[in-house]
Amino acid sequence: MSDYMQGDPDGVSSAIPFSDDEKEKETGEDLLAEDSPTASPEERITRQKKRSERIKTLLDDGKQSKAEVSRLKEEQAALRNELAELRGRVNQPQVAPPTDGKSRWDRELDAVYEMQTEAYNSAQAEIKAGTWTDERQRHYEKIAREVESRKTRIHTEQALEGERFRQRQESARQVWVNKYPEVYRDPRAHQYAEATFKRRLALGEPETADLVDDVMQETLTTFKLGPKKAPSASDKARMSGVPSSGGGGSSSSPGGIKMTPEFRRMAIAAYSELPEAEAIKKWVNTTGKRLREKKLL
């Protein structure tokens, strides 16, 4: 006997063939078919209800499908419009910037002058043709006033823009003037800083505040500008020739003279008319200096 007839001892099968519980399903075609001539009134009523429910279901499904189709059509239309807009942007010809070297103001003035020339030529043509009337005169007077108005506006806007640019430049410059006044007070230093700045820009360095600071610091160092430190005691002694200690006869300072008792007596004797400290200072700056130059001290 076959395995099927032996049953399903492992419980693998999930359906029972030929089950009495399986119900027959009526298709849409069965519901829409004509009633049997031998059907009872109850069967006809039941079948009519089922037919109505089936038709209603079909109609509802149709409405939903129609709404879905409409929504999809709207989405497709929106996508087509978006794609068309994107294609227009991509395919739009790029307008190259003018290469005639003229400013925006010059180009606007050229357009105004062209308008003025065309109006003049048209007026002359009408006069020659004999069609000149008071109305046409008022027409060309209106054009003339518009031409002058446009010229005035363009010149005014150009002047205001130039003034605004100058003010921005001056404000930016004043920041550096306040920060490095020594460079701006010295014409040679300022010229050097400007030339150095342009040279470094030409070498490819970006125009930044750090570059300006670097150039200014280089200029200060090159021209020995900027605030100077107060001289120390040793600097004062080296410049005056007097020992920094200013005291005992055996003290000395770097680069100065070691004032032994003998040198002190020589200085006081040489300049007896002066106080002792001034006599020593004068001797150091005269006799002592000559002795240092001859490397005798």
Describe this structure in words.
The protein is mainly α. Among the domains are: 106-179, no CATH class; 181-226, no CATH class; 238-293, no CATH class. It is 67% helix and 0% strand. It contains 10 helices and no strands. The chain has helices at 28-32, 41-91, 104-129, 134-179, 181-185, 187-202, 209-222, 233-240, 261-270, 276-293. Helix 6 packs across helix 7. It is elongated.
Which band does the percent of strand residues land in? under 5%
Q: What string gives the helices and strands in order?
A: HHHHHHHHHH
Poorly predicted segments: 1-9, 11-29, 242-255
Mean pLDDT: 75
How far apart lie the N and C ends?
139 Å
**How would you classify the helix and strand content by structural class?**
mainly alpha
Cα gyration radius (Å): 54 Å
Helices, by number, come to 10
Key structural traits:
10 helices; 297 residues; elongated; 67% helix; mainly alpha
Task: Produce a short descriptive summary.
Helices cover 67% and strands 0% of the residues.
List the helices and strands and how they pair.
Layout: H1 28-32, H2 41-91, H3 104-129, H4 134-179, H5 181-185, H6 187-202, H7 209-222, H8 233-240, H9 261-270, H10 276-293
